Amino acid sequence: MPQMSPLMWFSLFIMFSIIFLMFNQLNFFSFKPKIMNNSEKIKSKNINWKW
């Protein structure tokens, strides 16, 4: 069974690292957050503190 040279392991590591980073960037930039309106913020439950 042939063994891989250290440079080949390093190039494989670089390739998978680049694929991993590209996959993360695509997921990050494809996500579009939902924008809340001011009226939705006002509708949130008010807490009355009784000191």
Automatic annotation (TrEMBL):
Give the originating organism: Prumna arctica
A cellular-component GO term for this protein: proton-transporting ATP synthase complex
**Pfam families, sorted:** ATP-synt_8 (PF00895)
The answer, when asked if Transmembrane is one of the entry's keywords, is yes
Sorted UniProt keywords: CF(0), Hydrogen ion transport, Ion transport, Membrane, Mitochondrion, Transmembrane, Transmembrane helix, Transport
What Gene Ontology molecular-function terms does this entry list?
A: proton transmembrane transporter activity
Which family would the database say this protein is a member of? Belongs to the ATPase protein 8 family.
Report the superkingdom from the record: Eukaryota
- Where is the protein localized? Mitochondrion membrane
Q: Name one GO biological process term.
A: proton motive force-driven ATP synthesis
What this protein is called in its record is ATP synthase complex subunit 8
Record membrane topology: Single-pass membrane protein
Q: TM segments?
A: 6-26
Assembly: F-type ATPases have 2 components, CF(1) - the catalytic core - and CF(0) - the membrane proton channel.
Tell me the InterPro entries matching this sequence.
Answer: ATP8_metazoa
